[in-house]
Structures
1.
Amino acid sequence: MALSFEVAAASQSGGRRGALHLPHGTVQTPVFMPVGTAATVKAVPQDTLEQIGADGAGAEMILANTYHLYLRPGHELIRRMGGLHRFMSWSRPMLTDSGGFQVFSLAKLRKITTDGVEFRSHLDGSSHFFSPEHSMEVQIALGADVMMAFDECVETPATWQRTRDSMSLTHAWAARSKQYFEAHKHEVPWAQPVPHPSQLYRDGWDADNFAGRTQCLFGIVQGGMYPDLRRESAERLVEMDFDGYAIGGLAVGEPPEVTREMIARTLEFLPKDKPRYVMGVGYPDQIAEYARMGVDMMDCVLPTRAARHGLLFRAVEPGELQPVKDAIGEEESPGESWTGESSATPSTIRMNIKRVEYAEDQRPIDPACACPVCQRYTRAYLRHLFMSREPLGATLNSIHNLAFYLDTMERVRKELAGL
Amino acid sequence: MALSFEVAAASQSGGRRGALHLPHGTVQTPVFMPVGTAATVKAVPQDTLEQIGADGAGAEMILANTYHLYLRPGHELIRRMGGLHRFMSWSRPMLTDSGGFQVFSLAKLRKITTDGVEFRSHLDGSSHFFSPEHSMEVQIALGADVMMAFDECVETPATWQRTRDSMSLTHAWAARSKQYFEAHKHEVPWAQPVPHPSQLYRDGWDADNFAGRTQCLFGIVQGGMYPDLRRESAERLVEMDFDGYAIGGLAVGEPPEVTREMIARTLEFLPKDKPRYVMGVGYPDQIAEYARMGVDMMDCVLPTRAARHGLLFRAVEPGELQPVKDAIGEEESPGESWTGESSATPSTIRMNIKRVEYAEDQRPIDPACACPVCQRYTRAYLRHLFMSREPLGATLNSIHNLAFYLDTMERVRKELAGL
């Protein structure tokens, strides 16, 4: 069995409170997954990640990037180490992306054929080739609970015809991904006896505990900003019968209204009994909004990347005026994977900790936040760490932002459960 | 009362097992103090520092650098925040250096007169002046439990006459330091009511709890590599009656035999009933050796700086051959404050985690170490983090090395207590 998914409660607007049972544990949905690009959620130790946010439940599932880990340290090394969970000492569920997005956004000199993509590493310029089959091989070696079909990511903006051609290639690759996966899924490292187990293996990591369990594979809906293509893509993928469905190719520069519209128009055509995942979103208000619309899984680099740039999220305080967009201290340019600002009334304020107004501010980042950073450190101290480029600044900022995201999702889960 | 110091047991070789009672708590001696240059032990959260090493007692006392904090964020800001303890949320004892060593090693365009030192900031080139009185003013604003008299640090090597002239200036400055300190020690911020206390103030941080307590001031013995000058310096400082005595100007490039000889020749002339502190040393075998000779306090950037360069300390395993110096993988050039290698038979091995032999090594750094890094992560994973320049690598490496140092000192304490 790969996964089972139960929906315990659903709202009028389509939001679902559920539970996703995976080989490495059960995940309460809707879930936000912190991104651990290179088998580490940047600057945050694993034990901290297990404890922060969501009433102490911590991050129940994290994501790692196939492209990065394939290049360094290499998927065969990770396979020999017993898979990604054991390699990084993370015993909870994980998801790997297909590598497609990074090949198209980071690698150099791409050459795309119907067979796959030839590209050069952004690390050392070496040549590599990713096909649907190779992406599956790499993802099976990594051994995340959830794998993603290999997809082409079309540039933005793209014409209807260009988008449709790309989508059709994605569908062909999805079919090939599934075929390879079904033939090889028994090779996942955590289902194999390990010849030289590390003394650091944790309880429950014996291959015996995974008897009969396999990874699962999600398809990725493409179709750009065209509702008719989104529908077509959803229908074709559902015909192929994946374990879950992702909505890809969003938050790539389009206005947030368009992102929301594309999500809504795609969700209509996805089965209600399977998990739905929107990749690479978003701001706290957006992840809450998408969860209320019926999205079960999301991931984003924003909380950790913003943290390293000194951007901290906090709740609007009772009685505090709603912030004006230009007055909330956003000075850093958002990174390539950030989403636009939500058009809904924001309940979240972004603080730029480097601003001089925080130099002697003895309050925590967010007086309503229960995270260990808000329980111990002042804005004045966090500003000092940031201005002094001290590594502890990135760590503490990341811990707070991740806790804020996990808490946001916990609030939505309670709301959807009617609590 | 500034401090009280009890010696509970002493060895034949002069080593002492004691306890140092300071305004922010009691420190078991001999103690190793991690260095928190800019009000942060680089890359390590305060709560981790409170828990690692020494059977879970963690770091009982840490050091911060007066020069760095004077420049950024500024001592007056820290005074307004209630002092360094509250600013960085560290409720245990602290020590600040005098700023002298950094002025002489980091600042540009120094101009020394008998009055003090004019220098330019290494951060922005701005002009500043440090005198003994100003160093005291800054250190009182920072509010560490132990302050250091302002000293001149002579270049190495230096002639006998040059060293004696410098030492005499240090003595004059020591007397001025003490005079200013005695007149102003009641100004320490933690003994003042704070007009706007932070909600993050911890239990026991009320000014009331410090009624009648002040900081204490240590003198610094100089005299370079000349035993007669070391004796003269010790005798002059003891006449001035400081709360404790530091041995400065060592580990600045001289052979380790000379460092040990200078420590031994100075300890003879320091009172047995006051704490003795050797600044800026050393490797694990050295700190153990100096503690056995009768040194009560030490600090060094080595465990954290080495960690950031991927150098990890571990115990020689039972039955393991003693390492040959050239075979232990030291490739990084040691930083300016590192000491030379101990001449004693080493019980410690330095691992360079970037070496390819660790790429698939599933053992912890040190199988005998109880630190959270050795309990959870493999050498293979730590190597991956280092090679990928992931910030978690610096954090985990620093946690292990600090725990190794704190454990080393705990073992020496037990040995000195006859346990």
2.
Amino acid sequence: MEQRAHFITLATPDLEAVRRFYVEGLGWEPRLDVAGEIVFFQVAPGLLLGFFDAVKFDRDLGGAGDAPVAPSGLTLAHNVGGPQEVRDLVAAMATAGGTVLKPPQEGAFGGVFHAHVADPNGVVWEIAHNPHWRVDEDGTVRLG
Amino acid sequence: MEQRAHFITLATPDLEAVRRFYVEGLGWEPRLDVAGEIVFFQVAPGLLLGFFDAVKFDRDLGGAGDAPVAPSGLTLAHNVGGPQEVRDLVAAMATAGGTVLKPPQEGAFGGVFHAHVADPNGVVWEIAHNPHWRVDEDGTVRLG
């Protein structure tokens, strides 16, 4: 696995409070703002910080049914080139001691093919192929 | 506040599990590994992901005594140029609606001068002056 995170995503009870604090209060500019769903800010070259409506966050991580690790309110995302790469990396992470919370599948949000894997401390990684995501040469992240 | 995170830090019950999964299992190389305390991996240009012993994580965020927001198991860090800049930014974040969990002071770890501020959803930012931290032109993070 390349030593890289592409998204940091936080479950967020109050998206309006995000806008008031970061945008109005601190002057940040969203990279993408989807009403009632998610607000993304670029916070490092090639890295987006997402504030994701908590109800939709839980739904996005659901699906395993008997997952032994509950959603933690945080995901780290690692993007790869295609669905087969998602499957291969998830298998490698399971071999390394990870717990597959959601097997590789089409995601409910964002048009991704993805899976969720918890590390041994319960930190959740989303392994994804996202055809709408790219990073410009200067590090700027583009979505869609 | 510059739209930037410099560290993502996670409270971690089992540091040995971090080494087995990320280093031995996935082949990652720590940027800094302090036994019994913290392991840092660089996961984006200029960005470190820290796995911080959970007991020391809680101690690092303590000190306010009657903090209305409990440690969340996650901090985002934003580094500035000196102690006065820490004080000024913490004041600006409080004005923007943030909750000061730990007023500006010398930190217990890492030789930093820092403060902790929760955003309206309880996400904890560490605002720090860290004289041992720098970022090379190619994005590589140096500590000490």
